[in-house]
Amino acid sequence: MKHPIAFILLLTIVTMFGSCSSDTKCRQNMNVTMGVTIEADSLTEVDGVLQHTHYTSIPNLKIWGLGTDSLIANGNTSVSKLQMPLKKDVDQCAFVFNYYGVNDTLIFDYTRDVQLVSMTCGCAVLANISQIHTQSALLIDSIRILNAAVSTIREDNVTIYIHKP
Amino acid sequence: MGNSSSSNEKKEEPKESLKDSVCYQGLNFKLDIGNAAFMALKSKGATQQYELAMNVNLYKRFYPTLELGYAWSTDHAEAGNYWGTGGFMRLGLDINPLRKNRNNYYALLVGLRFGMALQNYNMTNINLNDSYWNPGGTYLDYPNQVRFDCWGEIVAGTQIMVAGPFTMGWFIRFHALFTGNAGDHKPYFIPGMGNPDGSFMSLNYYLGFRLDSKQPRKKQTNKDIDYEHNESGGE
Asked: Disulfide check for B88: which of A24, A42, B114, B192 has CB 3.0–4.6 Å away?
């Protein structure tokens, strides 16, 4: 053999190639959800004086996506922070908030950025929130967008303030 | 006596070697078998890539290089199906930093490449991971896509003579995609580069042959003899 080093190298490369196998399991986080904080304020009159109370944990609040029957918050536990998924195939979706029988619908408008992660993981649909508005404002007092970019990284995107009876 | 001395001189003369001062020293053609085998083995035949390379030997130092290839890939994975085919071209320059030697056809090459690929592909049933709004799955299709990509490479390798005009060598490539953010999605496969989210490195193993430039030999001058003497380390 005239060039043993070259042939050893070739053998090493072929062995290395033979040991490679394609990954068939998705190991990346594909969960793109919006981080939502829910807070409430109430004004109550005590001995003729208006008293302001701020709540960072809301009991009995139910939330679900409009058109689905799957609850994001079921009302059994107090809610302070939760993860809400946006629709991946359209640029708008709505969530229904129910608090002590009062319903309000919150509509999210956003732009989408479809990113193909891999053929084993599929696409991650990132979103950028452009507008949030309510249908009736019976329950929701105000909304604050903290970070419009919704990605696989869990962070606070929106704070929703509701009227507490 | 005189005859025997001249025949000894003839024996010592290098055969068909060119002076280093000659610009055009020959052409090298190479067929990649290493990366082709790697891709075919790794994908169990679903991805195949074939490439030919050609370089021009200038002054035994500079090797302007052209690499041409064709690839196709199919994948039926959990989150979608892919089928694509396309051609690619890489242009670049290698430099041989080894000490020049008139009879040396061995080259250690380091250089740069600019790669371009044009491909046509289909991606179907791509899962959007929308299990809350649509538990049955939301899927997306990218049919009949045409895409152009370009990338840069730093390469290093060897080109060695095996027997007669036949050569072989290997190359290690480190690549960076310049068009990763073009379009609304990153492609799954780029001909000539592979999966843009996969390894940033690839290997080639080449078999090839060289076409040397023939230069009519002229009578050696004192200058040439001095040059050869200096080249061989003054032995």
From this structure: B192
Query: Chain A within 8 Å of B168 (Cβ-Cβ)?
Result: yes
Q: Which domain holds residue B95?
A: 23-76+83-116+150-231
CA B43 – CA B32 distance, rounded (Å): 17
Choose the closest CB to B160 out of A6, A72, A117: A6
Q: How many domains does chain A have?
A: 1
Chain B residues with CB-CB distance to A18 below 8 A: 41
Contacts of B32 in chain A (CB under 8 A): none
Can you give the residue range of the structural domain that contains A82? 23-163
Q: How far apart are CA B178 and CA B117, in angstroms?
A: 12
- The residue ranges of chain B whose pLDDT is under 50 are 1-16, 216-217, 219-220, 225, 232-235
Distance, in Å, from the CA atom of A113 to the CA atom of A135, rounded to the nearest integer, reads 26
- Whether residue B4 is contained in a domain is answered as no
Contact A88 B128 (CB under 8 A): yes
Residue B124 lies in a domain: no
Contact between chains at A122 and B160 (C-beta distance less than 8 A): no
Q: Read off the DSSP letter of residue A60.
A: T
Q: Does residue A2 fall inside a structural domain?
A: no
> Cβ of A123 under 8 Å from any chain B Cβ?
yes
Note the ipTM here: 0.80
DSSP class of residue B100 equals: P
Helix, strand, coil % over all residues of chain A, rounded to 5: 10, 55, 35
